[in-house]
Design goal:
alpha+beta; 13-stranded antiparallel sheet; 13 strands; 36% helix; 29% strand; globular
Length: 333
C-alpha cells in the first residue's frame, strides 16, 4: 500500500451534507477557454466524477472492526486547461490531446471537528501545486465554496513536536496514549532542511553511516521536513507513514484488522483515520507533555545530551566490531 495525501481545508463548509449538493450542482462545468482561440464545437471538461462511475455522487458511511463510523465523499476530479499554443504553423488547430493540459485525480472529502477537508491523492511539489490549482479554481471556485487553505496549520508539525516524538522512540518511552493504546515503535527515515535528501534506514540501521547520520542530525538540532514513523495502535494495527511538517502525509504500509475491503476503501479509511485520530492525538499528547512539564527546554537538552553519548557509544562499538573482524581475517590468513 502506497499513497500520498495533500490536504485542503474548505474554510466556509462545515459538513458533508453541505458539501454534497455543491458537488452535485457543479459536477459539470465544461466551458471554452476564457482567452485565445478554440474550436467552436468544443469545450474544456471540468467535472466531478463519481467512484465507481455507475453510482451517483454520495456520502459513504463505513464501520470498521472496532465499530467506529467513517464518513466521506470519494470522487475523481477531472479538469482540462488550454495550452498556450493551440495551432500549428499552418494556422490549423492541433489535435485535441496536443491542445490541453489536464489533471485527473482521485480526491476525498471528509469532516473533522466541524470542518471539511479535501484530501488529494498526490505528492506535494511545485508541479503538484499547479495541478491542485486546476481543481481549486475550476471546481472548488470561491463563488460557490468560499475560500480554502492549502495545507492548513491544523495539522502542522513543529520541530519541537518531531523531537518530542524522537525522544519517545530513542528513550524507549514509546507509548503516546493508553486508550486506545498507541505506540511509536520506531522511525525509519527523516528529511531535513539542511539537505534535500531524505535519509532512509533499513533493518535496525546498524551500519555506522546510518547511525551516525541520524544521531548527528538530532545532536545538531537540525530542522526537520518530515519523519517516517511506524505506529502501532491497539497491538494489532501497524501503519508506516511519513508525516511532513505541513501536515501532508505519505502512507507506505498498513497491516491490521481495523480496515478491510478493496485497496481504495482501505486507502480512504486510513486517510480519515490518520487525520481524525492519529495526528490530532499526537498533537494533543505533545501539548499535554508541555503543559505537565514532561517535555520542555530542559528535557530536550537532556535528550540531546543522551544522543551525544549514544553517538560515542555507537562509534566505539562499531570500531570494536571492525577490529574483531580484522583480527579474525588475520588469523584466517
Amino acid at each position: 500500500m502506497l499513497f500520498p495525501v495533500v490536504l485542503i481545508k474548505l474554510n466556509d463548509i462545515h459538513t458533508l451534507e453541505d458539501a454534497l449538493p455543491l458537488i452535485k450542482n457543479n459536477s459539470v462545468r465544461d466551458r471554452k477557454p476564457e482567452k485565445g482561440e478554440w474550436p467552436d464545437a468544443e469545450t474544456l471538461e471540468k467535472r466531478w466524477h463519481p467512484i465507481p462511475p455507475s453510482r451517483d455522487i454520495h456520502i459513504t458511511e463505513v464501520k470498521n472492526a472496532e465499530d467506529q463510523t467513517f464518513r466521506y465523499i470519494y470522487l475523481r476530479a477531472y479538469v482540462e486547461r488550454a495550452k498556450s499554443t493551440v495551432k500549428n504553423s499552418d494556422n490549423h488547430f492541433l489535435d485535441r490531446k496536443d491542445r490541453i493540459n489536464s489533471v485527473d485525480q482521485n480526491v476525498l472529502f471528509f469532516e473533522n471537528e466541524d470542518n471539511i477537508y479535501l484530501a488529494i491523492y498526490m505528492n506535494y511539489s511545485t508541479y503538484a501545486q499547479s495541478k491542485i490549482n486546476y481543481i481549486l479554481k475550476d471546481l472548488l471556485y470561491d463563488e460557490a465554496w468560499g475560500n480554502h487553505t492549502i495545507l492548513p496549520n491544523d495539522y502542522n508539525i513543529t520541530d519541537d513536536v518531531y523531537y518530542w516524538m524522537l525522544r519517545k522512540v530513542i528513550m524507549e518511552e514509546k507509548i503516546l496514549c493508553s486508550n486506545p493504546l498507541m505506540t511509536l515503535e520506531t522511525f525509519t527515515g527523516y528529511s531535513g532542511n539542511a539537505t534535500d535528501n531524505a535519509h532512509r534506514m533499513t533493518g535496525d540501521g546498524e551500519r555506522i553511516s546510518a547511525l551516525l547520520g541520524t544521531l548527528a542530525f538530532i545532536f545538531r538540532e537540525d530542522s526537520l521536513k518530515s519523519l517516517k514513523i511506524h505506529l502501532n495502535i491497539g497491538g494489532t494495527e501497524n501503519i508506516l507513514f511519513e508525516l511532513f511538517k505541513q501536515g501532508n502525509i505519505q502512507v507506505f504500509e498498513y497491516d491490521g484488522e481495523f480496515f478491510d475491503g478493496t485497496y481504495e476503501e482501505v486507502q480512504n479509511l486510513l486517510t480519515v483515520y490518520i487525520y481524525k485520530n492519529v495526528i490530532p492525538e499526537i498533537l494533543q499528547r505533545y501539548k499535554r507533555a508541555n503543559d505537565s512539564k514532561d517535555w520542555n527546554g530542559e528535557k530536550k537538552k537532556t535528550f540531546i545530551e543522551h544522543v551525544g553519548a549514544a553517538m560515542i557509544e555507537k562509534v566505539q562499538k562499531e570500531l570494536a566490531n571492525n577490529q574483531k573482524l580484522d583480527d579474525n581475517m588475520a588469523n584466517i590468513q
